[in-house]
# Entry
Amino acid sequence: MSPTAVLYVSQAIHGLAYGMLLFLVASGLTMIFGMMGILNIAHASFYMLSAYFCYQVLQMTGNFWLGLLIAPVVAGICGILAERFLLRTVHKQGHLAELLLTVGIMVIILETVKLFWGTESLVVKIPEHLDGLLNFAGLSYPIYRLFIIGLSSFILGVMALILYKTRLGKIVRAAVSDADMVNALGINTPLVFMLVFGMGTWLAGVAGVAAGPLLTVFPGMADQIGMDAFVVVVVGGFGSLIGAFVVALFLGELNAYGIQFIPRLAPILMFAFMAIVLAFKPMGLFGERE
Amino acid sequence: MRDKLYKWIPWVVLFIVLIIYPHVAGIYYTNFFVRFAIYALFAVSLNLLLGYMGVLSFGHAMFFGTGAYMTAIVLTHIEGFPLLPAVLVGGVTGGVLALILSPLLVRVSGTAFAMLTLAFGQLIFVAALKFREVTGGEDGVGGYPIPPLSIPGIISIDMKDQVSFYYFAVVVVAICLYILWYYTKTPFGSLIVGIRDNAMRVSYLGFKLSHTKAINLIVSGVFAGIAGAIFALFQNLVSTIGVLDIGNCFLPLLMAYIGGIGSFFGPIVGSAVLHVLEFLVIRFTERIGLVNGVIFIVVVLFAPMGLVGLLRMVKERWFTRSANQMSTGTSS
# Structure
């Protein structure tokens, strides 16, 4: 391949890797929003928390796979606890109180992380068999990024199966479109909410662990992806998984090519895109309601 | 007549206290008070949206920050720019920003509004970091001359003197707060509250929702910008971390919530409480953010109307009890 083509293709894969990570974070966010009406400002904080947990597991055992297994689960449990003991108590006060509460949770997670792990960047080593480059048709590409794409696709597939082929998935989808009606049909919606919240934070946790070796682990890591995930949810339409998927991939590519060609304007491109979409479709591209 | 007199006494006392405060308290506490006053104005401007219109502006630092930046930039580049116009420049910048964003912001409410303001706040934060030529990037703009307060040919007060600056800042903040207080008491202010309580009914009454919301947004932006301008004059340094970052979005929110969003004076009380608290906590631990976060959660969980709301509740309970003793049945 010619050097230009290599550049384009490798940027496309970069974008795809980031887009998939973004989708893992945004899917949890959009499901929580669609179902409970809560915009979880703290969502990306769980992503960061999980990356730190993974770092800790690595420090103790030195096994990345163990970290990938344990850290997101612990983050998910933290999410479930936050939902059960904090968010549920203010549920009757309305969405504003819930939103503010998640702001508080975000601040507390951020400060706790700083307290335990300090403010400097921590390096998570890429596991040996994922380190290195893959040579394919004149193109050499880091294996780890391909691993991220594979892992995200796998999780996406499992999630789609659960959502569209099981009874639980049916309940979840029904609750996203009308939680009150599902409750009236005799299903324990608070329990479903809790599970979905836990699963959403688990997804964010997986993304956090996967991002750790790529972007290093530091207290500001939640800000970047958190903002991007919010844009994905807003543009894709609140509560729409398909919308989140399409927009996450698009933003990933926009980011990758933006950094390549107009580095200074790249972060602004994303917001410009959001502003344009909202000006014409306030509900987002795939959204049905506000 | 006596009622009126009683009403005035606290204000006169407050006035006298404010005048002698810097001479009694010393420079450190004088500056402490100026910070409190700036943030009180900032938090009240936020509460104009949060408490009165019922929408959460999660990127309010953008009005504050752009106001501060514009004042700093104007003072850096235009020699001999006078003081009061510099403050006005900050206000106008905040207002213009609100005006630009209003077509998008008035279309949404609730969570979408919070999202959009958050996103635009971050956009401006990133833009300020990237456009180094104008904003100085991470270093910010600093070391610009602070002009004296002067009426040509009559008087010129040096604003580098911290006590004079204290008087200047307090007077400006007081005037702004009075204007805002008056604004909330006008029929237009009631209309804003009406939109919060039942937007559809206000619309059916024949008011234009989008225009009304936009005007309130602009007013809020103007006064946040003025707070930012005073901040720029006070610090003589404006940098992205400090005026535009997410922490600065969170701070006025915290103040408004601690003080109570249901009252005009709530955010002022909140600003005072938070500053005093920070002053006390900083002696024991550097983790002021953690303390703030915990307090915020506790307030949202247990006292959603804040300290002023708590006070009102207590007062009401006592008041109704005494009313019950006098005449049972009618009071509730």
User: Anything to note?
Assistant: The longest helix of chain B spans residues 2-53. Confidence is low (pLDDT under 50) at residues 327-332 of chain B.
